[in-house]
Design goal:
This protein is mostly helical and 434 residues long. It contains 23 helices and no strands.
Amino acid sequence: MEQDSVLHVLGLVHSAYDVLTSKHTADDTHSLLVLEIAVSPIIIPALTEHFRTLRNLCANASDIQNFIRNDSRCFSIYGCYLRLVESYTLLCETTELQVSSNDSLCSVTMALRCGTQFLGNFITGNVENQQHVWKELKSAFRVILSGRDAKLANYCCMLLHNMSSCHLAIIQEQELLKDVTSVLAKHESEWSLYLIEKLAVHELLYTAAFSHLPYDNRIVLLHVIKAQLTPEDGSSSELSSATVIPPAVLLSLADHFKQNSDSIIMAAGEELGETRCVYVTELLNVLCVATSVPGRCPSLLEKRDLLVDTIQLLKRIHSIGRMSENRFTAQQKLAGASLDDTHPICGFKRDLIRLIGNLCWKHRKNQNTVRELDGISLVLDCCNIDGRNPFILQWSIFAIRNLCDNNADNKAFVASVSRQGAAHQVITEVEMAS
């Protein structure tokens, strides 16, 4: 019975495709042809209903999925879909000038929504159908994602999400990947979020595509990764309650941080664009979250060059802040102070100390490395209130405690430091804990 229904609908879709293609003559320009299709008062609503029927028939029905794919008229579905996409593109442009085109755009958009939902059901759990649709229609996805209809873009992300066998291919299509992240940024689309969460676990994303994306799109990806690393209850003790990001991905992000971290020095003035500044600070934030749960990524703790670069960067920032008044200068007098706490550089120095503390937790080799690079004195020197780095005092105390944990040499070094200012409190607490 269901196969009879499918055959009937496929026949109707094929007839619609014949009508659409028969409108083309040698004298037609491409634009006129597409516009003529778009404003058709019969064909577009009919296609909408056909797609609705096929969508419902395909839901959780692998036999129907295969039956449609193996029917010789399956190409008519793809042909009609591509014609609708062409019409959608043209109408999105013409409605800027002609209000009368709005009805046609709404009609075509509705047909595409139903068509995309059908395709989403058509390929779910069916690798062969996924490959089929990717081959025939991948050129249409960018048009839909960059179009003006948020709901249609969301459905397209649903389709790509369900196309699990093609996720690596999606990553390699850098422009398509950029469009997906832009959909999340513009529309907060739930399916774009689900799709990016699936793509984010592939190392290929960071080795082949990440550096080629605009900074805004990289920031979107980093926000998703940070959310995946954070347990739903906000705690830092339960590793199992957060999505597991492969260690190779976190190591790749550490490399990206190392490659870009020096550029943050330009933020002392106005040389570094705010977007790039946000990008570097978000990379650091992800690394802080990734190292905050013991055992999540031991490979990061073994990455000595990450620790060394973090210490050296903290030294440079601390030194620059002392040279003259700039964004890295500690603001210790908070009363009546005018602070730009919305600038992305706010908190960067604190997070460097936070990362150092995380990397040294119960790790003797890293504890010793920090001492050998004179990092302990540096952290102690940051044990002050700083309006540009909220809670830097608390994170400095945390770092010193981790540096001295079960490390007699580091405890002796801290005890030998001149007891002045807030550092005196830290030293006293460490001695009491000994």
